[in-house]
């Protein structure tokens, strides 16, 4: 595994602002083969990072479908994150001060523009497979529309062509929780941490499912009168976990990026944009996903030329894209079979 940082040129954002002095952290595994046609580029989701072997075990890594002994795997941390790429905690070159809540709006197209510049710097001219779930899937779709000639295969899981009013409402509820924390407005390291705990608790309700909570978080003794319930302590535990590894300012920034996602913006609408995709495409939905319901993946498959569609029958809700790696592998084997021997 190799970890590196790519210094971006001045980046003209979709908003009209310019992001200067920015950089992208990325990691690679494996080696390019002689034909330079074994590249797998992974786009990560909201709070993940460039270390895809850590957050997608079972799918990427030694002995997995995407094994670094066979593939050259690339994963870049998105702008706006707190895992090495330029984000709200980094200093503005013009002032020398961190921007915190004043960090500029980054759209999904801006995130993809940074990926595209990194790809050019790496001198990669063909990507065998572009893959991502959730926010990562939004990036993958945007990039596949932007560069239809670049990708041989596209795999998107639990994602959509345009972020829904439902998804934006969930994100706004989380941002309201963060902004209600007075330390967030102060613009300081650790600002908004208490709000971030609450935001994570809200998010989990969209990431998981009613059956999953029922199976894992129901109190064991129905006759016991409790002040603190298993589901309550679970929400707090998950909030603490996120605060220990993430930042409220990045969370707000990236959730706003997700809200901007609309493949059809200034492209004649979503169907016209999806029709541009030239890669052989696999679209996977999750039966219990309430955040990205199956109707959104069916829309993708209906308008991407020749797309293969499948459903992961999972009790885990949206988080199934991270957890159902055996089922995802099964669909990948079917997907690659017509043209590619793995």
Automatic annotation (TrEMBL):
Homodimer. Pathway: Amino-acid biosynthesis; L-methionine biosynthesis via de novo pathway; O-acetyl-L-homoserine from L-homoserine: step 1/1. It comes from the Bacteria. It is found in: Cytoplasm. Transfers an acetyl group from acetyl-CoA to L-homoserine, forming acetyl-L-homoserine. GO terms for biological process: homoserine metabolic process; methionine biosynthetic process. Its EC number is 2.3.1.31. InterPro entries: AB_hydrolase_1, AB_hydrolase_fold, HAT_MetX-like. It comes from Hymenobacter cyanobacteriorum. One of its GO terms (cellular component) is cytoplasm. The active site is at 134 (nucleophile), 289, 318. It catalyses: L-homoserine + acetyl-CoA = O-acetyl-L-homoserine + CoA. GO terms for molecular function: homoserine O-acetyltransferase activity. Residues 39-189 form the AB hydrolase-1 domain. This is Homoserine O-acetyltransferase. The keyword Acyltransferase applies. It holds the Pfam family Abhydrolase_1. Substrate binds at residues 200, 319. Belongs to the AB hydrolase superfamily. MetX family. Keywords: Acyltransferase, Amino-acid biosynthesis, Cytoplasm, Methionine biosynthesis, Transferase.
